[in-house]
Amino acid sequence: MQPPDTLSTTFAALADPTRRAILARLSQGEASVSDLSKPFSMSAPAVTKHLKVLQRAGLISQSRQAQWRPCKLQAKPLMEAADWVAQYRQHWEERLDRLEDYLQTLQTDIPTTGTPTKENIP
Amino acid sequence: MQPPDTLSTTFAALADPTRRAILARLSQGEASVSDLSKPFSMSAPAVTKHLKVLQRAGLISQSRQAQWRPCKLQAKPLMEAADWVAQYRQHWEERLDRLEDYLQTLQTDIPTTGTPTKENIP
């Protein structure tokens, strides 16, 4: 069996709300494992397990400094994921256009009887 | 255990190269399960399993027509995934800027001796 490709590893790492919340926290700046554990009602080992998934996907790095080992966001895999998803932009834009057209049709169909005009305002 | 949220389901569905290839094929237009199976060296049931994952994630729909049941790309979950990833754009743009600055430094440091100038061209 082949090892998963980069994009598959990235998407698999993003397929969890806790891991996405960790990335959101790291987008504000570096943080220690204990800082990252605080907002979640889960044990440090559980958080460490999520961090390992993110680290294997190259989405975070952990440096070694004297007093602490801060985690840092690494945006390259996110850029590649964004590039992949952007190929489909045309499809959702067409969908939005169709919704807009439909809304326009609905608005055109609303009967205008009863709308105040210069003539019917007392 | 809570059911997975929409974004997690989308990212999990995208975390497979065959499923991404199926979406790429469907971005060209509707296709039957047998059309979708052709490019892959896998059985129809294996492809059907992937289609079920994509369908559960709302990434494709399968309509019922007289002769065939074509699969169709549904772009809404991709738009939501793109929106989520786009939050991190600033981070990869900063990264690209730093790389560009570094490249600039390297180019400035290249010694210019030997480069033809007005004076040393015979």
How would you characterize this protein structure?
The structure is a homodimer of 122-residue chains. By secondary structure, chain A is mostly helical. Chain A has six helices and two strands. Chain A has helices at 6-14, 17-26, 33-37, 44-56, 76-86, 89-109, and strands at 60-62, 71-73. In chain A, strands 1-2 form a two-stranded antiparallel sheet. In chain A, helix 1 packs antiparallel against helix 4 (44-56). The N and C termini of chain A lie far apart (81 Å). Chain A binds chain B through residues 4-5, 7-12, 14-17, 20, 23-24, 27, 73, 75-76, 78-79, 81-82, 84-89, 91-92, 94-95, and chain B through 4-5, 7-12, 14-17, 20, 23-24, 27, 73, 75-76, 78-79, 81-82, 84-89, 91-92, 94-95.
Short characterization:
Two copies of one chain form a homodimer. Helices cover 57% and strands 5% of the residues of chain A.
Question: Can you count the beta strands of chain A?
Answer: 2
| End-to-end gap of chain A | 81 Å
Fraction of residues in β-strands of chain A:
under 5%
Q: By helix and strand content of chain A, what is the structural category?
A: mainly alpha
Low-confidence parts of chain A, pLDDT < 50 over ≥5 residues?
none
Q: Report the major sheet of chain A.
A: 2 strands, antiparallel
Q: Most extensive chain contact?
A: A-B, 33 and 33 residues
Topology-level CATH name of the domain at 6-75 in chain A? Arc Repressor Mutant, subunit A
Overall geometry of chain A comes to elongated
CATH evolutionary superfamily of the domain at 6-75 in chain A: Winged helix-like DNA-binding domain superfamily/Winged helix DNA-binding domain
CATH architectural designation of the domain at 6-75 in chain A? Orthogonal Bundle
Oligomer: homodimer
Over all CA atoms, what is the radius of gyration of chain A? 25 Å
Q: Averaging pLDDT over every residue of chain A, what do you get? A: 86
- Going across the biggest sheet of chain A, name each strand in turn: 1-2
